[in-house]
Specification:
Bound molecules: thiamine diphosphate, magnesium ion
Radius of gyration: 25 Å
Largest sheet: 6 strands, parallel
Amino acid sequence: MTTIRLTAAQAMVRWLGAQYVVVDDAEVPYFAGAWAIFGHGNVAALGEALYAGRDALPTFRAHNEQGMAHAAIAYAKQMRRRRAMVCTTSIGPGATNMVTAAALAHVNRLPVLFVPGDVYASRRPDPVLQQVEAFGDGTVSANDCFLPVSRYFDRITRPEQLLDALPKALATLLDPAACGPVTLAFCQDVQAEAFDYPLAFFERRVWGVRRAMPDANELDALAAAMRASKRPLIVSGGGVLYSGAENALAAFAEATGIAVAETQAGKGALAWKHPSALGSIGVTGSSAANAAAREADLVVGIGTRLQDFTTGSRSLFADKPLFQINVQAFDAHKHGAVPVVGDALRTIEALHDRLRGWRVADEVRARDAAAVAAWNADVDAAVAAAPGRTLPSDAQVIGAVQAAVGDDAVVVCAAGGLPGELHKLWRTAKPGGYHLEYGYSCMGYEIAGGLGVKLAEPRREVVVMVGDGSYLMMNSELATSVMLGVKLVVVLLDNRGYGCINRLQQATGSPGFNNLLADARHAVLPEIDFAVHARSLGAHAEHAATLDELRAAMERARSIERSCVVVIDTDPLKTTEAGGWWWDVAVPEVSDRPQVNAARRDYEQRVRMKRDLS
Ligand SMILES: Cc1ncc(C[n+]2csc(CCOP(=O)(O)OP(=O)(O)O)c2C)c(N)n1
Ligand SMILES: [Mg+2]
């Protein structure tokens, strides 16, 4: 056997750079690059290896480990899980800074390879700087925090372990059902240790992605249920996009006339104008989709986790017969659904075949069309700019942004009031045009995520919509976007606080407290000049005083090559009333506040209604 003597770090980098996949008929490296913030746990050995291997695996520097991990995860999401990135950190705080991002990737079923440095396998210098010491367990390190939020975890304590760990890591990242974050905690002394690796280990390898065929019996059961139904509804989730099934779904919907509603992760599979598109479903759904869900005699989820925002906390269609098409049996069995385990594309194709000649009745379709027309009028009204000089609503800003960008644009968002408003109001023309991280809804994902999106699709306009709270929580990768020449347009909606939580707080009977800046303990009420801040990071930045100024600033932003930030003050209280559904947020059972008691009575009534439903 021919061998080559390499450090474990060199072996890892060499192997990672030799893994390929086929995307749009071209063989491309699976790993588009490695994000790295160096420290004593990775600079000496992994740093040396990344430098030597920088042609096959380019390294990118970031400012915050969580931020760089968000960029990596967003890249994979926008690439529809066909390609991914690596993130490496020092031991200790650099590593644990990534744990939130690991949880985000875990919830959203997105691939990312984490390589945090780890303590010495030899224990030679213990306790090494930043080592977390457990009194009763010598095997614990800070990286154990990754265990519950990794789909595959290994600690590399011997160089030859890589021969096994690396292929297992990639098999997990590329597995449509098991997909999620992989953590290879890399002991820092082991990174530097040499070993005679078989040369064959580093041969270029092209990986395929499995498409699981649905079971014939499960498929027959679904086809029979659909044939018997008069008012079926498809709930289309992120799995439709990850499977590349959007054209098959559109063709199936056209052939059968079946109505389709979309989750946050699934939005954009059908163009908003598609005749079967009812818009978004659930807590932040359209009136058309939610009415169809109440009327449905059969609900078919495709590639959805059925999280509470989709199901209205199980109050929207819990009383309906439910089938779940999902590549992961864990999801296919949720909520008592009849499972159809399989790839979304293959299952839709097979279903299309079995349902030839079957069509939803014209009067049902006409009802849907009327409901969609009414919803579209509601959207137009919500986003229309009101005359006068009152603060605009999030909806009006969304309307102005939507009008300023092309059909190809990608809107990026994650937390605050905006995701709900965007889910209701954003009109997605093309798949991939709507990038919402709403599995973990992690404040701080927006700008870092936008960077990953733009790296994935450099030719598309990327518009990040972000609240003042999220911006303050993590904005540092804006500087990275400027440094890398990866242009983002960031629209920052400044309502001076955690607007959506303030509204939720008041809806549950409490006074405004500790959410809006003015309602929080303060010696000085902050007057943050976000435009000045963004400029200091190197971005072009403007403050728009009105929606007209916002439109003009967006126009300018389109022609500027650098990342741009447009700040606009917004009303923290106004939201779109049309559409939507109940969301289960537990209200205190006892309180001195009559408003809380009243909210509790409403809450109990809703919970009773829900119980009657299921
Ligand atoms: C990391 C993180 N911390 C806390 C929350 C809970 N949370 C959700 S939205 C929100 C407020 C967001 O404020 P901002 O970005 O200004 O948006 P707004 O609500 O004002 O629209 C908070 C605190 C979260 N989703 N993520
Ligand atoms: Mg805010």
